[in-house]
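User: Run a structure prediction on this.
Assistant: Running it now.
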Amino acid sequence: MTVDNADFRESIISAPLSDSIAVQAGPGSGKTTLLINRLKYIIKNRANSFSGIACITYTNAAKEEIMTRLQNEGVQLPNELFIGTIHSFLLDNLIKPYSHFYKKDSKPYKLAPHGFARSYKHEIAQMLDRAIHFIDESTLKAFESLGRNEEGNPYCYKNKISSEVALEWKKLILGKGYLDHQETIYLSYLILNQHEHIRNAMSARFPYILIDEYQDVTFYQEKIFSLLEHSSFFCVGDNNQSIYSFTGAKPEIFQEKFNNELYRSYTLSNNFRSTAHIVKFSNNKTEITQLEAGQNASSEQKVVFIKDTSKTSDVIQLFHHIRREIECDEQYKPYMILARQNDYVKEVSHFLKEQDEGFNSFLKKLRTEHYRCFQILKNFLLAISYKRRNEFDKAVERMDEAFSYLFFNEHPNYISLSEIEYNTFMWKKIQIFTLHFLDNLILTETSVADLFLEVKSFLLDSSKKLYGKSIGKKLAILNYKWKKQVKASKSTMLSHLINQIEIQGDLSKSEEYVLSIHSAKGQEAECVLVMAESESQLIEWLEENRKLEEARVGYVAFSRARKLLCIWAPLIQEENYMHLQQHVKFIDKTYVTEMENV
């Protein structure tokens, strides 16, 4: 068996440029680093410095990560290098220059923007023979993602739209001069398949093509790549993470590539991300055995199953109690909460927001009674907090927002400084002066009411001394009478509010932390809570990956965790998971009491 070590990986990176390569790379295996190093090798060693290189990513986020890492390593990016999604690549190199071959007016097609189906709700309602109010977002998204089957006929892989309606829709948008993302793929295939000189030109222009997430490639994407027969390919994928059948993705495409005798095939067996128990727990589902190899490999933390807990709120609170015992690395996302369906994700996000918003009644009431004052106070407090954590740029951003609401009752993008006879430099300077003033306040002795009055006095004096400008009329809001909160405004000290406002400031991050499993693919976190809507769903997730896609959804979810993986389903029965007991422990609500006693 080949040992996955530095020499093994170097042999992949430095393989002859004319060779096509397929790499099976599981979660946490360092496949992005391998892809980047192969790309750097090609840039440095290509025979012709004008030879183009295409690095195809599955998402724009992956593109940004690759570009950032290359720039941080000081790599000079050649003009002939393309890094981006397959749709961007085809749009620039095939659709724009050649799609006029397929239009009567000889103009190239335009890419339909995200959400374009909303403009055609009436037409969609007629096609489906439904009332317009029955056309929901999921239906619109299905229309925007219609693909083509292997016979070239419009097809809905989400099984929501009939073939007849799909054909009618394609004719409608093509007649309007638009291509959706899936049609970009199909038309590009037609162009290459029907015009030999174009596919020869494409291969000559891009002799080196690297493709990430190859397990998510569709039938016509594979057809496009196979037509570029004079290009060499570097394909990275993992069949165990193929969870996009609703786009037409087929894991067997990558498997065929991996088994193709024209390709050099390699498997990365090391997992540098997760603890030994998480890796071995996940290995139960796959034929490809990963080996724990990273800094977390020696951890004895087992996978946690949460039992005897039926409420979502209790599960989340218990998860946070458990993760507080984990020493987290600040360079990684602290936690993620994952669920299968978007509706369930929204439900969990809503609960977290309600929970956090209830922490401070003064702030909650102020936001209801006077939103403008709430925005001013919130941003002043966050500015102080960021300043004291030496995050000066963030502090200045908060001052800018606070001042915009204070002077103009507008978002910073919509203010007019001419109203106070300031220019941009004067505006920023007085913000920074005020930030230093706020930072010098004694927070334990300054009430909310005091804050508004002291800031007003400071701004009046500063504007006159610095610029000779009177701005009293613009500061009237600082005379606010604290409707229904007069006593509270005088008794609530800023020191008490700072902690609370930081919690509220983090509310906007709930979208980062609570995700669907599909949107979490490619991400990782120190601690992960995976929430099933039923035990039957969880049991599906624990099946072997090759049997069904839902098992691979579970694999993707479980493999996001670095140090702590918690799993929950309502009415979970411990006896159903005895075969996993070597790597799993069960915890219930008594855990909190036990830890408090410790």
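The mean pLDDT is 90.
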